[in-house]
Amino acid sequence: MSVTAVRTPAEYESQLRRYLYDRSEEGRAVRVGEKEVSERAEIVARYRDLFSREQLGALRAAEENASAGDERERLYRLRKTCEAGVVSAEMAEREDALENAVLAARIDFKGEELPIRSAQAKLAVLAEYREREDLGEVTADRSAEFNDERLEVLRTGEELEAEVSGEPDMVARNEEEKGVSLRELEAALAQASERSTAAYVLLRDRWFERLLGPEREHVPSSYHVAYLRRLSPLASTYTKDRAVEVCIDTVKRLGFDLESEPNIRLDLDDRPQKSPRACVIPSDPPSVVHLITRAQGGLHDYQAFLHEAGHALHYAGCDPELPYTFRNISRDHALTEIYSYILEAITREPEWHAHYFGLSDEEAVRNAEATTFLEALLFRRYTAKLRFELDYWARFNENGGGPEGYEERLTEATGIRYRADAYLADMDGGFYSADYLRAWIRSAQLRAYLVRELGENWWRSAETGERLRALFAEGTRPSSEEIASRLGYQPLDIGPLLHELGA
Ligand SMILES: [Zn+2]
């Protein structure tokens, strides 16, 4: 073993920047199909001394000696990044083994051998209700066979995090890092979900009928969710060919020119090796930000492009004078998701549909309603998921958690039947669901603010762009809750969200 280098915080930050740049660029090359073999392990090995316990101790000591304010916050984020790196270095082998086992698993569908991932992708495009039902069931059965190993990985990872952070309670640890009370958040979300139930039921019945047809069960299974999300019956209007042009023009009306923005590298080509999921890779914000999409056809392409454009503009728009930590490191994902959600929200404006797709007012309202239905469905699913996860982790240290409540909560919230044995595959690390849900509340507040300040045309006003630019300039420094106060709202004010959900 070589002697481990322990760096000062400033050296640590600049070495971390190099590491994240190399790792991001490698991930990008593999994802877009430029490289066939990932050399990620080699990069991790090269930078191994960034994530040692000695380094963690040094960062913690520096943080304790710093006075409150930006400097302490910066050291806090460096320390937490180091902490997460220590845990993931020790977990990498087991996590990879689990992932590779899942990747290697095959199911048999009508005489065809399919990997689990391909079967899941196929569920989104199979037109026949009964076929989705059959394929969904064999896929979920096969996936559930990995539950013992999933639970072991979860347990080991949690024990390690508890030890490395010094906080044995998963909920308390995440509340501290996010700077919010998850139980208060849960209470506000439960209220939003309850108060919008009547509106949701109306939308759901109408769109279940349109999308799943009359042969559906009263409570259809979750095997149909991917298919619902694609809104296949609308695919002929929202063609693959126009996605890039329409989205670039939409963003241009806000005053952002993606094609001549030097910080954003666009990769919009259709290549067979390229992953179909749209993403943003902020390799070195603000100057190197990749926006990657690959249109597949359907309204979902347009939503995904606008969503990712929101992330890209945020990272590419941060003040280059900020310390690196406040350009690329955040406590959670709740801030940047506000900006992706607000751009995606443009697809809920009926006039956007009428303008770009030559629809009658009636058709435009109907198609915009489809996006509201999906939004409400996902919001309710995530709220139920957060509630389950909070209960799960509350009992974790006593009885190990267990699936109790997963099926009941998700099924009741959505009107879609979720299987109890899917709870582990559906669990996100670090209460990611809470970050999305905070962004849901906040982006609704932001939209209400823009409508109040700029009127119903907010989504095609360069003035909206100016206001967003001012927020983007702050980088990753503010919390989602600080943005609420900039907009004149209490963090848990769900009024604007209820309006979005049609309540
Ligand atoms: Zn996002």
Q: What letter string, H or E per element, gives the SSE order?
A: HHHHEEHHHHHHHHEEEHHHHHHHHHH
CATH architecture of the largest domain: Orthogonal Bundle
Count of discrete alpha- or pi-helical segments spanning 4 or more residues: 22
What number of domains?
Answer: 2
**Helical fraction:** 55-70%
Shape: globular
Ligands present? zinc ion
What report would you give on this structure?
A 3-stranded mixed beta sheet has the order 3-5-4. A two-stranded antiparallel sheet has the order 1-2. Strand 4 and strand 5 form a beta hairpin. It starts with 8 loop residues before the first helix and ends with a helix. The chain has 22 helices and 5 strands. By secondary structure, the chain is mainly alpha-helical. The protein is globular, with a radius of gyration of 23 Å. It folds into 2 domains: 103 residues; 319 residues, Orthogonal Bundle (Neurolysin, domain 3). Zinc ion binds next to helix 13 and helix 15.
